[in-house]
């Protein structure tokens, strides 16, 4: 995934600004998609890869800050870099609290934008790597039977085989077999490794010990 092409989306209603920013970003080898409105951005097919959004704060109709909140609700997690010619401290604080990576007031130095864009793309690349790892972990967890999930939870909680056997009214041999299957399916190399995996699994959006995924 680290070799995925990176891109920048620009949303600014000023054509001259869009052209200038697109030219700057393309000059350093980035793929750029420029839009005059948030509607155009949403209607376009977003490219695959790590990217970020350079967003004007003041747009006709919906403001950039409002659009930032809308993106979160839509599950679009591109890092946002705000640009504005009318910024003030309260506005920048609001943007940063909502998760914006940077808030640049026009006129800003080209290097400041480039630095912010490169940082944003790297953050998005890390997020994509984490998402891919969690997706793989989810698939491993799906491969467990309900009994194996139950035993995984108890093993990760620190219970011994004989304790688990007593709690589930099973033999220790049966618990050992299930435990070995859990270790194999979850690709855990050791008990501490399984505990770390269990911690990650517990944060995924499905019920940890039941059959619901």
TrEMBL record:
The record's annotation in PANTHER family points to:
DNA-BINDING TRANSCRIPTIONAL ACTIVATOR DEVR_DOSR
Tell me if Zinc-finger is a UniProt keyword of this record. no
* Record SMART domains: HTH_LUXR, REC
Q: Which domain of life is it from?
A: Bacteria
* Name of the protein described by the UniProt record: FixJ family two-component response regulator
What does the UniProt keyword field contain? DNA-binding, Phosphoprotein, Transcription, Transcription regulation
Identify the residues that the record assigns to the Response regulatory domain, covering every copy. Answer: 7-121
4-aspartylphosphate-modified residues are 56
Its taxonomic placement starts with: Bacteria, Pseudomonadati, Pseudomonadota, Alphaproteobacteria, Rhodospirillales
* HTH luxR-type domain: residues covered: 137-202
Q: Which organism is it from?
A: Azospirillum rugosum
